[in-house]
Amino acid sequence: MRRLQGLFASIGTMTFVLAASVSTVSSASDTLYEIKKTEPKVAVGGTGTASLTITAKAGWHVNGEAPISVALTAPSGVTLQKAKLTRADLAQSTPEAARFDIPVSATEAGKKTINAEARFVLCQEQACKPVKETLALAVEITPAAPKAAAPTSGATTKKKAPSRERPSIIAASSISLGISAKNPRIIQTTNGKLKAV
Known about the structure:
The chain is α+β, with helices and mostly antiparallel strands. The protein is built from 2 helices and 14 strands, in the order αββββββββββββαββ. The chain folds into 2 domains: 109 residues, Immunoglobulin-like (Sandwich), CATH 2.60.40; 33 residues, no CATH class.
């Protein structure tokens, strides 16, 4: 009986060790890279930009020669320029990071989710690891801004500019005053009254 208890204790310990190593492997995978999302707020009829940035960590780098892509699925009311982005569509590409900018247009208001599947390869000096990551990009779509109301009637109202009383100086024509062009007279007007100067 004691042998059976010892055997069960050993099996329990092995199960615990096995579970811990699986947990460590999955969390080690999480420390190899990080994906940052920029989720836009867009008005109906407008365009915004979402982005996904893949950043390598812990001595790993984004392979500059291997395929890299993001497959996108848009909900109703959201339009994407492309359903699949590839290396040619990268907005930024360095050994440490790769960024996709995703133009988003909206046709109906509400909170929408764009599903994305990113595929890329991480490498270090002696090994490479293909990665497939499923993500969701939240997009908040607001109603379009109301347009300014146009006048309903064709009539326009004209307002007269306020009058200012400023004297003006006018060179009188030599023909109208009978004076030679060599010596013209200057007439100053104030409140509609003429004065010879």
